[in-house]
Amino acid sequence: MNIVLIGMPGCGKSTVGVLLAKALGYDFIDCDLLIQKRCGMKLQDIINTRGIDAFLAQEEAVLSSLETDGCVIATGGSAVYSDTAMMHLKRNALTLYIALPLGEIEQRLTNIRTRGVAMSAGMTIADLYAERCPLYERYADITLNAAMQSIEETVERAAALIAEHS
Hints:
single chain, alpha/beta
């Protein structure tokens, strides 16, 4: 079984994912890095040169091709736009939504226009949050409210919630 991490950009999926994988004795996969490797460019460069739709198509292809077991998988924040990819991942996984309040996300995302976030021109972080949160809730098997928690506290709580669900 895998653990799939979903949530807004800046919620800590990659950072928590590495430490959670260590705590559980799992391997770790960062899907953003897989997309970059596959395309040979940074996420923001993919969005800038090929467009958001092409980026989302690459993300879906990468996620849908994963065949793993015993991995913590940090998805990109936009993974939930693809029902195909999410259903593929959920076949062999618990999906953990790392939830944070909008204010914390806004404080963490100081580089929203350069970090490879799939969002339309003119869209704010609040708009993105409102659009994505229902999707995260839809795909989550477990929701972890990580508000005002350190990374270590988040990892401990995630491991405990996973143990309860296993």
